[in-house]
Write a structure and sequence with these properties.
277 residues; alpha/beta; Metallo-beta-lactamase, Chain A; seven-stranded mixed beta sheet; six-stranded mixed beta sheet; binds zinc ion
Length: 277
């Protein structure tokens, strides 16, 4: 059940790690309401059961990986990723990835870009990949104030090494990646955040990145997590994306919703509901 097909594009969900988030950390302003209303989406310790899932799109003869998870390094507050194993289970090696596309440049989306070589240098984990990043997102995170912030050490490990690798492609806005895939501007979580639209043989889907983190936001699109850089804009973006998905029935592919994160958003009795595929 970790695969689905959108027209001629095959989508494989590759789990980096399950993720348990404390609502008091994640959405402090609404944590009590979340716990009261969505107990069925929490574990026995009242933690939100989420995932860090990356998606492999086989499109136009290329293997395209959307985001790269948390990576192999030990980080405070986060589990270690296991995308390397998920790739292996899918019958692929890092060398098979032709293109890595980033929805944005947060720690849980860029982790496997590099691994530490024995001499301490950073080695790009996908030796044949081109890395596609939105210019706006790149410019935002590469500001000295962000790069030099010790809380953003991951930028130095996982993002900055792309700059002189000869494999970074910066893209401006809603450009197409190939005849099936296109960027959709979905700002708010970060300034240059994008979703990936899939349009193939009359079918459509959207890989939403972090435009939404949790199905409770279907009822409460304004429940913006503390990680959203612009919580007002992210709420507006989220609302638009939910309604677009209801409007045309596009498949909904959400890496932080519970693995594998494939489904559709429908309206039942006036309420937005997620139906897993
Ligand atoms: Zn994320």
């Amino acid at each position: 059940m970790n695969k689905t097909r959108i027209g001629n594009v095959e989508v494989t969900a590759l789990l980096d790690t399950p993720l348990l988030m404390n609502p008091h950390m994640f959405m402090p302003q609404v944590a009590e309401q979340m716990i009261a209303e969505y107990a069925h989406l929490l574990d026995e310790r009242q933690l939100m059961t989420m995932s860090i899932t990356t998606y492999l799109l086989r499109s136009a003869g290329k293997n395209i990986l959307i985001d790269t998870g948390l990576g192999a390094r030990k980080r405070p507050y986060f589990p270690q990723g296991r995308l390397d194993e998920s790739l292996r289970e899918a019958g692929l090696t890092p060398a098979d990835i032709d293109i890595v596309v980033h929805t944005h440049l947060h720690i849980d989306h860029v982790g496997w870009n590099t691994i530490d070589a024995e001499d301490g240098s950073k080695r790009i984990f996908f030796p044949n990949a081109r890395f596609v990043v939105q210019q706006r997102e790149w410019d935002y995170w590469m500001q000295p104030a962000h790069l030099e912030d010790p809380a953003n050490a991951y930028l130095v490990d996982c993002v900055a090494p792309l700059e002189n690798s000869g494999r970074l492609q910066l893209i401006d806005g809603e450009q197409a990646l190939d005849e099936h895939l296109t960027f959709i501007a979905t700002p708010g979580h970060t300034p240059g955040h994008v979703a990936i639209g899939v349009y193939s043989a009359g079918e459509r889907a959207v890989v939403i990145g972090d435009a939404s983190h949790h199905p409770a936001q279907l009822d409460h699109p304004d429940w913006s997590p503390s990680a959203d850089v612009d919580p007002v804009l992210s709420a507006r973006t989220r609302e638009l994306l939910f309604e677009a998905a209801i409007g045309d029935g596009r498949a909904w592919i959400a890496g932080h919703w519970q693995y594998p994160g494939f489904g559709r958003i429908v309206r039942l009795n006036g309420k937005r509901v997620f139906q897993a595929l």
